Amino acid sequence: MPDLSPEEFQRAGHQLVDWIAGYLAKPERYPLLSRNHPGELIDALPAHGPAQPESMEQVLADFERVLLPALTHWNHPGFLAYFATSASAPGILAELLIAALNNNGILWKTSPAVTELEIVVLNWLREWMGLPLQFGMIFDTASISSLHAIAAARELAAPAIRQTGRSEKPLTLYCSEHAHSSIDKAVIALGLGQQNLRKITADDEFRMDPETLEAAIVDDLAEGTKPFCIVATAGTTSTTSIDPIPAIARIAQRYKLWLHVDSAYAGSAAIVPEFGFILEGAEHADSLVVNPHKWLFTPMDCSVLYTRRPEILHRAFSLVPDYLQTADDPRRVNFMEYGIPLGRRFRALKLWFIFRAFGRERLAAIIRDQVLMAQELAVEIGADPRFEVVAPVPLSVVCFRLRGSDESNLELMGLINAEGDFYLSHTVLNGRTVLRIAIGNLGTTRDTLQRLWTRLRELSASLIA
Ligand code: PLP
Questions:
Q1: How far is CA 147 from CA 141, 172, 187, 226, in A?
Q2: Residue 403: domain span
Q3: How many domains is the chain built from?
Q4: Is the sign of the CA dihedral 78, 82, 84, 90 positive or negative?
Q5: Residue-wise DSSP of 257-272
Q6: What are phi and psi of 328, to 5 degrees?
Q7: Where does ligand 1 bind, in terms of residues with CB under 6 Å?
Q8: Digit-coded pLDDT (tens) for 264-275
Q9: pTM assigned to the model
């Protein structure tokens, strides 16, 4: 038997599932951030791979002994850094099945379920988010989804570029100064030139200023460049600010530019009926990205790109070598013709498990409460004269700072993170260092936040003195 026998699989599988159940019940038993030194894990593992088989018992034992201390516990309720996320149990079970089935959706034919379930669950999500963009497909990350969106925008603006690699005029792209760095990376990867990316200034609530945007487009046209794409962000990485998409969409229409909406984090929250403000105007977008692995309790990875112009995405990426030719049928979608990757994981299965196990209303209730928790905490922080809340809290992130130097804020963050119960991250706003509390983990409760707030105040006492 080249693989584990069914009995061995069952034994190790039960052991592992039992371990996972215990882990998920209380990830707080471990220090949130690994206390390993850089290189410690490398030094602790053999330099050469094993020549002979080792038992799963040995492997699992070494996982606990050597790997676990080198892990950061993203499922820990005190994980409040970046955009906090947790893997829900239905999503974890789906991942097990995805690995077991080992399907590769390179074509519809190689597993109809991989393609058709993706179409179905993305239709469900689209409807929940109130989006008219009828075509969706799953990528690994928002960085890759946005890269595809911008490639489609480029295809529309300069169709010759696919063949010649050149455009008559430099193509210029617009996003806010608070847009995610994945937009810069897409510009780099697509060879558009960083000098052709215009970072539009934001207002005092960190939202792109449409007048400045329009002025930049007018200037570029006068200079002889070809504006081709605007990226609006709904839920920026630092503060979750939402660009004024309706005004930006009007500008995109006026100058015939592709509008891509980056709602990698906040798009999921649009499933809450009263949070329609998040994607207001996005019905005019040409494309939009949302990451269920950020705020829909989906284990890494799962990013969804929607577009109302799939034919342009197809034009940008369709290339079918002989060995991948299949019969034509309008219902036979081959997603590999709409993007770079040929191999495609069965990620839709995670969404299917999660959507069915939670249902829209429960998912919406969880997100709604996480936003409420953030807003309640912001009120408490704002009421303490030693601290200030430095950005509006429309969603589940609180940006705040100790009234003091940047160094004292970084020191406070260092102290709290070193204790092992919480993990906060920082950003820079208006040139000042700011701390962030991002709520998105299924285990985070009001009690978690109260304990954090108490500890922040205690630790800050020594810093201010
Ligand atoms: N867009 C926004 C607004 C983000 O906040 C992030 C990451 O936090 C990204 C894009 C990139 O996401 P990914 O890691 O899926 O590429």
A1: 10, 15, 8, 19
A2: 354-463
A3: 2
A4: negative
A5: -EEEEE-TTGGGGGGS
A6: -80, 135
A7: 83, 141-143, 180, 182, 233, 235-237, 262, 264-265, 291, 303
A8: 999 999 999 999
A9: 0.97
